[in-house]
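Tutorial handout. Part one gives the primary structure; part two gives the three-dimensional structure as tokens.
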Amino acid sequence: MRPRAVTPGLCRGRGKEILTSSSGYDDISSVKELLPLRLFDLFVNITSEEKVGMASKGFTLIELMITVAIIAILSAIAYPSYTDYVLRGYLVDATNGMASGQAQLEQFYQDNRTYDPQKNAPCPGATKNFQFSCTGDATSYSITAAGQGAVALFTYTYTYTPAAGLIKATTATKPGWGGACPQAWIVKKGQSCT
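Part two.
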């Protein structure tokens, strides 16, 4: 590496003047005076043994195996929780669709004094995750939401009769979610039937 060019004369370094050579280049001793000692030693005095020692540093096999094991354990715990969380988001289509259908049927009854689908009573339209079907007569109705795709194992009903009023029921769920419940919509794993 070629030394930096300076004009012949005096340079200031570390609070004292250094005489530069008449050829216009600093000699190595003047460069050493300009740089702090530790910085100069770092760049100039690195030996070949130190370079080899720095290049051979890395991770050991056991360190990599421990890291992979930790990631595997965290994944085994987190993945099922994540899939259940996503599934809960899909179930909202059923509950929202049936609640909307219930409001539409009540409005239809106010105008027509019947819930009968044969007389054009409204029924919620299908969504990406649920298919809706409606049955009814002059005084009662039932809305059924049957899952499709990722929620194919879930089926919910919303039934109205003058004697019992509105009844929410879960007729089928994914295994491990609590099974059928005649008095509530099961929308979360481990939810009790109350």
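Part three, for discussion. The chain has a mean pLDDT of 81. Residues 169 and 182 are 5 Å apart (CA to CA).
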